[in-house]
Every structure is written in C-alpha cells, then in structure tokens.
Amino acid sequence: MKSIRDLPVARLAMASVMAVGLAQCDREPREQPVDAEPIVETPVPEPEIATPTTLDRSAFLGAISRAGSAYAIGTTVSGPDPLVGRTFAIRLPFGCGRPKPAALATPADAEGTARSPDAGVPTLAWGPENETLRLSLTPDDWSDTALITSSGAGDRWEAVEGFWLSRPWLGSETCPQRIDRDPLGGGTGQADPQTVGLASVHETNSSRLGRRDGQAYRFTLRGEDDRAPVPAPMGYRVVLEGRFASFPDGRAIRCRAASIDQRPVCIAAVQLDRVAFEDGSSGTVLSEWRPG
Q1: Which of 83, 29, 26 is nearest to 54 (CA)?
Q2: Where is this region: Disordered (predicted)?
C-alpha cells in the first residue's frame, strides 16, 4: 500500500478541494440581507372647521367692506350673491356711556311712537326723576330714501324699516373702551355720520306682522327697594336676527356715496325674525320680539 506521501501533488490538491466543497454543502445557505423599509408616518388629518353659516357683526362688516370697495372702484359683481338667504345674528352695543337725561329724551324714547332724531339707533335714557332706565329703538323709515328708491324696489316693497350699526369700525359686539379725550388733541368728539345699516323690508301686500310703523321697541329697567337702577357696566345690546333678502339686482347689499372722498353708505336688505335687548355685561335677555 502506498503512503499518502507517494500520491502525486495534484491528487492531494483535488482531495482538498472536494473536502472544502463537502463542508460547504453541510451549511445552510446564508440569507441575503434585506434593506429595511423606511417607516412612513401617516399624518393625522386635522379636523375640518365648519364655516359658520350665521353671520355675526364682524362677518357682516367684512361683507359691507367688500361691497363698499367694489362700489367705489366701479366693479360689477356677477353671479348669485352667496349672502342672500343666509341667516345673521348681529348685535348693536349701546348705552356705553352715561344714560341721556330724562329732559333730553325724545317723544319716541318716552312714549315709543313718532319719529325720533335717534331713529334707527338704540338709546338709553333716564325716566322721570331718574327712577327708571329706558332702553329704546325706533326703526327709521327708509321707504322714500334715495338709496331705496333708486334700487327700483318702490313697487316691490311696501315698507322699509332701517337700523344703523353705529361705530362700524368696531367688530366686537361689546362696548368700546371709554376715551376721555382725543389722543391727538383735535376733533370735536361728535359721532361720525351713519354709514352701515340693515333695512328690514316688507313686500307689498304682505302680512303686516312684524312691521313697527314708527313704534319703538322699548324696555324699562327699575331698581330694587325703590332705588334707582344701576346701568350695566358694559352697557346693553340690541340683537337683530333674520335672513338676508335681496335688492332687485339680486344683491343683498347696496351702496351709494356723494363723492369719491366720502365713505359709501351701505345697506343690507333683510327679513327680521327676532329683535331683543340684552344686558351687555351678562348677556341676559331683557326683552324680545318676534313676528306674530
């Protein structure tokens, strides 16, 4: 028998290769590395904030501003007016200062009838001997005003009762802070002319329910234990609720101005569903009126 030393070198090399191959066959195949997939975080959708359908004072004044700007630059807006048919709840703060003395109260303040110099604007006045406080709002008669008659609604509307939004630069529904004097040292302190209003329109031959015909909305505050009432620290508010109507041109708001240097007077046609007096501090409803 030949010794392994006598084997040719080639046979030794072949044996080594076969041994290595057999050893490899006994091993399980190595798994190929798999690239890790990146973790993708699915963003959580933000909850949709529903657009309020009922316009408040701030939203209404925004619509008035856009209508006034369009009128001033002569833009004619085409298409349906999205404002027509929408509901509103607009608050008019008043009585933000001292009540008017009883001696200065107008017949409409005292009796709730006739035309008042403050027609269309809510007022707060003392009663006789300052024993009561009288909240009053007399709708203004706008039926024969140029802004209404020029719209072509003369035959369509039998009555138009108007309400002014004082301080149209104030988006808040609360009384402004009291200013003792003009910070710039000028001006007379007189109120600006009214430029923003709501026109409560009544169709010809329609029901007369809800029409005031010069009659004021009134509420009387009395003190306790025969004492004079104390005015609310934050004044009072008139609440006007209803739906926007349209002028004959299909728009809810109509604007006019005497010159390019004056702010346009803009009026919205509406149908009123509710009028109320509120305490400006607590929001308590003092009195309310609904058609019918």
Answers
A1: 83
A2: 103-124
Pairing of strands 265-279, 253-256: antiparallel
- Find, among 212, 190, 216, 10, the residue nearest to 108 by Cα: 216
Long-range CB contacts (within 8 A, 24+) of 204-208: 204/155, 204/156, 204/157, 204/158, 205/158, 206/158, 207/291
Alpha helix positions (H), 26-80: 57-73
Task: Please tell me the number of Cα atoms within 13 Å of 210 on its side-chain side.
Answer: 20
Q: What is the DSSP letter of 55?
A: B
Strands 265-279 and 285-289: antiparallel
Residue 198: closest CA among 89, 41, 37: 89
CA–CA separation, 46 vs 62, rounded Å?
Answer: 27
Token look-up 């005497």 returns 258
This prediction's pTM: 0.77
What is the DSSP secondary-structure string of 24-38? HHTSPPPPPPPPPPP
Question: Which has the closest alpha carbon to 223: 215, 235, 231, 213?
Answer: 231
Report CA Rg, the chain: 39
Q: Which of 199, 164, 163, 192 is nearest to 262 (CA)?
A: 192
